[in-house]
Write a structure and sequence with these properties.
Elements: E1 4-12, E2 16-21, E3 24-30, H1 32-37, E4 44-54, E5 57-63, H2 66-75, H3 83-92, H4 95-103, H5 107-110, H6 118-128, H7 134-137, H8 150-161, H9 166-180, H10 186-200
Parallel strand pairs: 3-5
Antiparallel strand pairs: 1-2, 1-4, 2-3, 4-5
Helix pairs in contact: 2-3, 8-9, 8-10, 9-10
Length: 202
């Protein structure tokens, strides 16, 4: 099994690259995130490799670091998430974003990946909720998820528009509502949410 390859980048495509390792060209499928950071044609590169053997074919999937490979392995344990879908998720979101979305049960952010619909996103967060690395899933203070009242959703949208990730906005607004009460005005929810996000270091 091939676990790691180091060589010269021969060709970079939209979803793959060819790595020249001492005269042998390896065709390796990669996420857009890896392809955008691995380097340019003719440069040296090292990839962590996931080797998949099926019947008479051999497929190589490459990752810029161990964290991305570990996330790929975890995602592909979910029914309906194949190798291509795993790469699609890692093309749309970083491993940390994926882990945080799962921890916050935020299905919407996972649907940013091509081919991931609401049902599959729901399956991912349900099946992996207890399997994500805690040190990566919680880089900010995480509170219980907010209720889906129109005012809460409006406050969440306001924080997202200010540049915060959806899961961060959701958890902060929920905590703000707990602190201020369910009848708190929208502006107070937003202001308190911003204060909580600032204190958490987000």
């Amino acid at each position: 099994m091939i676990a790691k390859l180091a060589g010269v980048i021969d060709t970079i495509g939209e979803t793959s690259l060819i790595l020249d390792v001492r005269g042998v060209g390896y065709f390796i499928a990669c996420s857009n995130r890896t392809l955008s950071t691995i380097g340019l044609k003719g440069e040296q590169a090292t990839l962590f490799i996931e080797t998949i053997m099926r019947a008479e074919s051999l497929h190589l999937y490459g990752f810029k670091d161990q964290t991305e490979q570990d996330c790929f392995r975890l995602l592909t344990t979910v029914q309906g998430v194949g190798m291509r879908m795993g790469l699609a998720l890692l093309s749309a979101l970083s491993p940390t974003d994926i882990y945080q979305a799962i921890a916050a049960q935020d299905k919407a952010i996972l649907t940013r990946a091509d081919g991931v619909g609401p049902k599959l996103a729901s399956r991912i967060v349900t099946e992996l909720k207890d399997k994500t690395p805690k040190e990566l899933a919680y880089t900010a203070t995480v509170y219980p998820l907010p209720s889906s009242t129109p005012m809460v959703q409006e406050a969440v949208s306001a924080l997202v528009n200010l540049g915060y990730r959806r899961f961060e906005a959701m958890t902060a607004v929920n905590k703000a509502q707990q602190d201020l009460g369910e009848t708190a005005p929208l502006n107070d929810l937003i202001r308190q949410g911003l204060s909580l996000l600032s204190r958490s270091g987000t």
